[in-house]
Amino acid sequence: MIPWTYAERILYVDLTRRTARVEATPVALKRGYIGGAGFVASLLAVGPRGDQAARAAARVALATGPLSEETAGRMAMGAALDRPALSSMGGRMAAALKGAGYDAVVIDGRLDRPGVLVLEPEGVHVLDAGRLWGLEVPDAARQLYAELGPYWATMVLGPAGDHGVPYATLVHEGHFAGGSGVAAVLGAKRVKAVAVRDTLAVPSRCTGCTLACPAKLSPDAGRAGELGLDAPAAARMAAWVRGLVAAGMLPEPIELLTEIAYRRGVGALFADGEEAALRRLGPEAARYLPALPGRRRRGIGVADLLGTCRRMWRERPGDVLRSALVATRGLLADAG
């Protein structure tokens, strides 16, 4: 069994120059931020406002936590726009990144053509992804699997990310990184997917998990996932459009979520989010907006810092949390 630990390396990638460098993970970073979302927040710098040019220039950071190897992994990610956009993703991406030898990856610059960012212990390279650009997530993931093989963890953009929809999401084996803006930034950078060679022998605890993640419960979630759209945002847009169609303010879309992802037809009105749609449709359309869901948890939780799934605390909250904090405290003490 692999012990809880840090990989002790941070990878910096410049897509424009096609260069990469590795630096040791600073002790101060581990002491001050623990890992995961804390690392991401510290590695991002606030950038310009989020138009397409700013997205392409924005920094993206991915990070694991000290527990990402042993438990249900959670990889934190973020992008620096006018404010840091933070998200996270379950599955084996965090464990794979740790196994490749990196606590975090910082991505700057922009590719001149669509590509797949490939991360291995030996280094970094970019595969041409022109054939994948515009494909839906299952088709793109299937092609990557055929070309790379089974020993890779991949997170993929759908057409929503390719076309700059701000609430696009990254998809990894049925896991989603909510539509915070990170996927739209990677799309603007022309990164269709990130692939990490999975060198760990320990499987993700997500394998065989029977509990449905919240994003998978919406009736529109399956189609949203195929298109790389954030499921809660897509469900809210779909409910809004149904109200507008019933009121006679819009024609019936052929397939709304597809039209949003590809920015065509009725969907083009909603591809940039609610505020942009209201500017185009007029204030009368606000009457048909569905009520906002309950308030989401604010701030960064312990699980986000440690790089593991919050479900662990529900399954065995006492001993898991206690041992996690003890182990992390020991790691930080050893780092000094």
Secondary structure: elements and pairs:
Layout: E1 9-14, E2 19-24, H1 27-33, H2 36-43, H3 52-57, E3 60-63, E4 75-80, E5 84-89, H4 93-99, E6 104-108, E7 115-120, E8 123-128, H5 137-148, E9 152-157, H6 159-162, E10 170-172, E11 175-177, H7 182-188, E12 191-197, H8 221-227, H9 231-246, H10 256-261, H11 274-281, H12 302-306, H13 311-315, H14 317-335
Helix pairs in contact: 1-2, 8-9
Number of strands: 12
* Beta-strand percent range: 15-25%
The first-to-last residue Cα distance is: 25 Å
CATH class of the largest domain reads: Alpha Beta
Task: Write down the overall mean pLDDT.
Answer: 83
* The named CATH superfamily of the largest domain: Aldehyde ferredoxin oxidoreductase, N-terminal domain
The count of helical stretches stands at 14
Q: What characteristic shape results from the CA principal axes?
A: globular
The CATH architecture term of the largest domain is 4-Layer Sandwich
Plain-language structure description:
With 336 residues, this protein is of the alpha+beta class. It has 14 helices and twelve strands. Strands 2-1-6-3-4-5 form a six-stranded mixed sheet, with helices on both faces. A six-stranded mixed sheet has the order 8-7-12-9-10-11. Helix 1 packs across helix 2 and helix 8 crosses helix 9 (231-246). The relative contact order is 0.15.
